[in-house]
Amino acid sequence: MSQSPSPPPPAPPAPAPSTPFAYVRDLFTPAGPPEPLLGQSSRPFVRWLPYAVAGVFLAVLLPVTATLLPRSYGMNGGLAMLLSVAQTVPLLIAVTRPLLAWKIAFAADTVCVLALPTPGPGGPTVWPWPAPLIIGMLVLMLAVGLRERFRTSVAVWGLTTVTGYLFESTSSHHGNGSWLVPVILGGMLLLVGGALRGRGDARRALAEQETISEAERARRTLLEERARIARELHDVVAHHMSVITVQADSAPYRLPGLPAEAREEFGSIAATARESLTEMRRLLGVLRSEDTHGERAPQPGLDRLQQLAEATVRAGVPVELTLPELPELPPSVDLSAYRIVQEALANVVRHAPGATVRVSVSLDEDATHLMVLVVNAAPPAAPGPPLETTGTGHGLVGMRERVRLVGGTLDTGPLLGGFRVAARLPLTPLEKEPPTA
């Protein structure tokens, strides 16, 4: 039965248009949660640096502003102190909430200019913004650029520019053009802060993507190794199923005098075995990739460990093999033990060339488990780049999957400068499915 095609994924939402209302809205909408500037750094010194910088500016600007406003601009001392606190304390708030800090300080700056008495001839030339207010503005604009979105920065710069121009153009006292300092330098700081923010966002996005890619790569490696194990075990199981089919089909000819019920039972067994073989081959076709061809050679077992050791010695790795006489092993255990030793020796050739390797395969005291031990010593020379750098990285993954398949245990890790692989494989079949990874 044909399936209808799945609907296409929804298109991503279109960005909001940059209308004047959007700029006003961004003035009251922070770009994200109140996280400290540089708070994601792993070094404590860097995380505390914004607080230290804000504290220094607060310690300097607060007394200077409270002294300068009454002395040079003729403001009442109590009002000057109150406005000085409202203009400088937001510097500490800017570490976590730059937009809120800028709004508080900018409102205090505006009230300060409106409360200043109009100076007469020979009055201060820094007008309408006193110098400490300009410095505080620049610091807060840099913090806004580091945290907020581009439209917010544009709105902050535009409001600062319009307010400064109105104060300069409507006042009977004109300064030396210092009102342009927040416009020019503030705009530059907003751009620099935005560029640094964009760079940081790009680096964080790249790190997240690398983490996702690594997880996907590990998952793909695990699935490929499981498919490879399934293909190998197919040959083992298919052999036994073929034997069952042949024995069931030939039973009426080998055993004369069988009753009709027995002949029918043997025929049913043979048919079921052939059907199982067909299903296995269909499953194998799903697991096999398009560029993978079927293997015609029988799957190896522990009887080929000697050949494997000799091939490893020819590759420049001395191997000491201990392989006593063993009883007939279950095919899955026999194949898994061989593959574990093969992967362990391949890892030594790649990563510790020249190191002596001891391989031991034996039964435990109760003769219920097969013990596989591969230990390599430290390489004789200083470790250099691996001889093989194009491997799939399936070694330990494959070992764990094979051990999990038969219900055994695996212990790996460094040992006296070398590496140790120890597997314990049960000789009895599993009564239930092994837990999924």
Please specify the SSE layout and strand pairing.
Elements: H1 20-27, H2 44-73, H3 77-88, H4 90-93, H5 98-115, H6 131-147, H7 150-170, H8 180-254, H9 260-287, H10 305-314, E1 319-322, H11 331-351, E2 357-363, E3 369-376, H12 395-406, E4 409-415, E5 418-426
Parallel strand pairs: 1-2
Antiparallel strand pairs: 2-3, 3-5, 4-5
What is the overall silhouette?
elongated
Q: Please trace the helix and strand order, writing H or E for each element.
A: HHHHHHHHHHEHEEHEE
Q: What's the Cα radius of gyration?
A: 39 Å
Main sheet, how many strands, which sense, barrel?
Answer: 5 strands, mixed
Regarding quaternary structure, what we see is single chain
Q: Structural class from helices and strands?
A: alpha+beta
Spatial strand arrangement across the major sheet: 1-2-3-5-4
Number of structurally distinct domains: 3
How many strand segments? 5
As a percent range, the share of helical residues equals 55-70%
Output the number of helix runs.
12
Strand content: 5-15%
Uncertain stretches: 1-15, 385-393, 431-437
Q: What value does the average pLDDT take?
A: 81
Distance between the termini: 34 Å
What does this molecule look like?
It contains twelve helices and five strands. A hairpin with a 5-residue loop joins strand 2 (357-363) and strand 3. Helices cover 59% and strands 8% of the residues. The protein has 437 residues and is α+β, with helices and mostly antiparallel strands. Strands 1-2-3-5-4 form a five-stranded mixed β-sheet, with helices on one face. It folds into three domains: 20-178, no CATH class; 217-287; 302-380 and 392-426, Heat Shock Protein 90.
